[in-house]
């Protein structure tokens, strides 16, 4: 086998990684790092010019195939088309559900259109695309799903109430999927980044000048840590959490609470005379 044949065989072996929201920020870095790992790519976002620029650069830097798909994940027709497309493509071996939006406002100051947009992109699209690829992954007993949640998956802030709610959905939805597919060869990773330097903040209406740089990670560090977590076999990766025992304790407490509530007797503090 010549070097180029060997290279092509290695690339084909990895298959295609679909990255949503690859036109900027965390998704753009995932595209780069997965290209470096030899994946062919399907890059999804609305801004076709940005996607094309990312694709051109990656094709120049790596010997891979890159396809761009212009889709608005908040549009039911676009979402349906993409779900069918990736669900029917046996070459798809990885999906990074990264596309997301934020609105930095208390719910009383968030329009109902914004609430619906947050839920449709952060939740409906993520769930639909997850469910599009998982049957194929399960049938082939191979494939990786990466869902991007947030530190706000487990901590709600009044400055971003609905965003936190959508990210809580990502955490619990992904956690349930991990249990459903635990006995298979399908890998499902939940990534929970904290503040990361991307466009999302300004788009959400936050003035970058008020942000403390010591609390904001680069998108490169965030993705490199997340992929290191994937390589370590982690189900949940918190790129900026130094003390991993904190997550273990949090997780154990959730479980303890769940089991402690499985009784048909009201708690004694609620006992009422009948
Ligand atoms: N940055 C942070 O501090 C942080 C922290 C925790 C979690 N996260 C999560 O990380 C993920 C990536 O965000 P980011 O920080 O990298 O923000 P970003 O730079 O704004 O990137 C968001 C990406 O999502 C795409 N997108 C947005 N709306 C879309 C739609 N309707 N249809 C298709 N694609 C859409 C955008 O592309 P187009 O505009 O071209 O469509 C863009 O590529 C999100 O899920 C976010 O919630 C971010």
TrEMBL record:
Pfam families: adh_short
The family this protein is said to belong to: Belongs to the short-chain dehydrogenases/reductases (SDR) family.
Keyword terms of this UniProt record: Fatty acid biosynthesis, Fatty acid metabolism, Lipid biosynthesis, Lipid metabolism, NADP, Oxidoreductase
Native source organism of the sequence: Edaphobacter modestus
A molecular-function term among this protein's GO annotations: oxidoreductase activity
Pathways involved: Lipid metabolism; fatty acid biosynthesis
GO terms for biological process, alphabetical: fatty acid elongation
InterPro entries, per database record: NAD(P)-bd_dom_sf (IPR036291), Sc_DH/Rdtase_CS (IPR020904), SDR_fam (IPR002347)
Protein name stated in the entry: Short-subunit dehydrogenase
């Amino acid at each position: 086998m010549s070097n180029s044949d060997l290279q092509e065989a290695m690339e084909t072996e990895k298959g295609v990684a679909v990255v949503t929201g690859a036109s900027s920020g965390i998704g753009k870095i995932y595209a780069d790092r997965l290209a470096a790992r030899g994946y062919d790519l399907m890059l999804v976002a609305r801004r076709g010019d940005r996607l094309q620029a990312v694709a051109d650069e990656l094709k120049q830097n790596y010997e891979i195939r890159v396809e761009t798909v212009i889709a608005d994940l908040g549009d039911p027709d676009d979402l349906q088309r993409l779900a069918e497309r990736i669900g029917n493509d046996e070459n798809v071996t990885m999906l990074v559900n990264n596309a997301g939006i934020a609105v930095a406002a208390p719910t009383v100051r968030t329009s109902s259109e914004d609430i619906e947009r947050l839920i449709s992109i952060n939740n409906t699209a993520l769930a639909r695309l997850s469910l599009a690829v998982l049957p194929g992954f399960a049938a082939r007993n191979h494939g990786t799903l990466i869902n991007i949640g947030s530190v706000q998956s487990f901590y709600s802030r009044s400055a971003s109430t609905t965003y936190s709610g959508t990210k809580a959905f990502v955490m619990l939805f992904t956690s349930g999927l991990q249990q459903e597919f635990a006995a298979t060869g399908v890998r499902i990773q939940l990534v929970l980044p904290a503040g990361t330097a991307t466009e999302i903040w300004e788009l959400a209406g936050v003035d970058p000048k008020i942000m403390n740089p010591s609390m904001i990670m680069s998108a490169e560090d965030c993705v490199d840590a997340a992929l290191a977590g994937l390589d370590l076999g982690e189900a949940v990766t918190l790129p900026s959490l130094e003390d991993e025992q904190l997550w273990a304790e949090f997780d154990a407490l959730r479980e303890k609470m769940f089991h402690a509530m499985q009784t048909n007797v009201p708690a004694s503090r609620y006992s009422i005379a009948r």
